[in-house]
Amino acid sequence: MQVHISGIGGTFMAGVALLARAAGHRVTGSDQGLYPPMSTQLAEAGIEVFDGYGADNLIHRPDQVVLGNALSRGNAEVEAVLDAGLPYTSGPQWLAENVLAGRHVLAVAGTHGKTTTASMLAWLLEDAGLAPGFLIGGIPGNFGVSARLGEGECFVVEADEYDTAFFDKRSKFVHYRPRTLVLNNLEFDHADIFDDLADIQRQCHHLVRTVPGRGRIIHNATEPAIDEVLAMGCWTPREAFGTPSGWQALPRRDSATDFDVLHAGELAGAVNWNQTGAHNRMNALAALVAASHAGVAPASACAALAGFAGVKRRMEQRGEAGGVVVYDDFAHHPTAIATTLAGLRASFPDGRILAVLEPRSNTMRLGIHRDRLATSLAAADAVFVYTADLAWDAAETLAGLSDHAALADDIDTLVHAIVTAARPGDRVVVMSNGGFGGIHERLLSALANH
């Protein structure tokens, strides 16, 4: 079968492309403005990608078109699919029908940490010899690809709450029918499709309704918004983490990263690793409890976390130049920004941290979280914000940061400001959910020449 994927450059759809290719289909795709790591992954897989959208991309008349949720009516390729009467579906529906059916699906949902937690979970299952399949919205360092079919029964999927397609406005995750569900945290986000937090909670409740009675729901006990979702109705056994009566992660006094895992107050294992921050300890708890439902002993899972290699674009060190280390991180919500900086500060307590932010998500560009932005950046010694295409006054919003903040609507100007301020020993963390105009390499080059 020939499968054409419209919007193939998104993290989810690029994963669907890899799975379709591995299943034996001939795969093509189309997108515009692709950037690494997904553009690189598709090229390495030998998948032909057309630049831009249009009827010409469909001249081979594919047997099925998979339409990404970034495409809507009026898009030239969507209109061509409809006019030609070609069979089409959404990415989540294709995944459910062609990959997930009959497997033990372990789904990781939540506003923050989905990619990292799903990557940890896939690694724990892999280390235990279960050879899982997975589809993750990033590239785990342990695997080098964002998706694979796997040989075992288990399949790990990052369960995104964003809508499915222009013709299916349900959240993606309602298609997955998980046996093991992780609810990691829950805040308001995606203001372009949800009216408020209650709107997202309703979709999460629909997800909870799909988990069978013989399944398991693993939930963060420190999140009242998740408690409210479960209070709407739950028919599945639950396990809580982040509470003394359930699973806890206790940091060691002699280490900035290592911690002990307790279950109902009893030591279950020790984690010795190089990941930073309280948020990653919570991610690890969620992953190891989910792995235990698939048969992995907690002590073994704790030991396996030492081999977790992280995820591209999640505090990924991109290079060092002029004595300055540059990191890339996907943080684009105030909570994620704050936890990313707190984690870096914990492992780098005495040096300077320079935070570089592109408020690129629809929610951030609309200014929904602008009142929390200055506070989320407060742990940085200097802040640099890219202000193009914002619907709010960044200077007014960040006035509380005093002279620690520099704003620019041009990337070259921003790079110049960072390089001028940086000095040997600094850590620069670049935060964006997009390509950010290749700022990482531009910054490293400028630092090397400064």
Automatic annotation (TrEMBL):
Ranges of residues in domain Mur ligase N-terminal catalytic: 3-98
Functional pathway: Cell wall biogenesis; peptidoglycan recycling
Cofactor names: Mg(2+)
Keyword Nucleotide-binding listed: yes
Gene3D superfamilies reported in the protein's UniProt record: Mur ligase, C-terminal domain (3.90.190.20), Mur-like, catalytic domain (3.40.1190.10), NAD(P)-binding Rossmann-like Domain (3.40.50.720)
GO molecular function, one term: UDP-N-acetylmuramate-L-alanyl-gamma-D-glutamyl-meso-2,6-diaminoheptanedioate ligase activity
SUPFAM superfamilies, per database record: MurCD N-terminal domain, MurD-like peptide ligases, catalytic domain, MurD-like peptide ligases, peptide-binding domain
Pfam families named in the record: Mur_ligase, Mur_ligase_C, Mur_ligase_M
Domain Mur ligase central: 108-291
Ligand binding (ATP): 110-116
Domain Mur ligase C-terminal: 313-434
Keyword annotations: ATP-binding, Cell cycle, Cell division, Cell shape, Cell wall biogenesis/degradation, Ligase, Magnesium, Nucleotide-binding, Peptidoglycan synthesis
InterPro entries in alphabetical order: Mpl, Mur-like_cat_sf, Mur_ligase_C, Mur_ligase_C_dom_sf, Mur_ligase_cen, Mur_ligase_N, MurCDEF_pg_biosynth
EC number: 6.3.2.45
Catalyzed reaction equations: UDP-N-acetyl-alpha-D-muramate + L-alanyl-gamma-D-glutamyl-meso-2,6-diaminopimelate + ATP = UDP-N-acetyl-alpha-D-muramoyl-L-alanyl-gamma-D-glutamyl-meso-2,6-diaminopimelate + ADP + phosphate + H(+)
Free-text function comment from the UniProt entry: Reutilizes the intact tripeptide L-alanyl-gamma-D-glutamyl-meso-diaminopimelate by linking it to UDP-N-acetylmuramate.
UniProt cross-references to NCBIfam families, sorted A to Z: mpl
Similarity remark: Belongs to the MurCDEF family. Mpl subfamily.
Record-given protein name: UDP-N-acetylmuramate--L-alanyl-gamma-D-glutamyl-meso-2,6-diaminoheptandioate ligase
Biological source species: Spectribacter hydrogenoxidans
Lineage: Bacteria, Pseudomonadati, Pseudomonadota, Gammaproteobacteria, Salinisphaerales
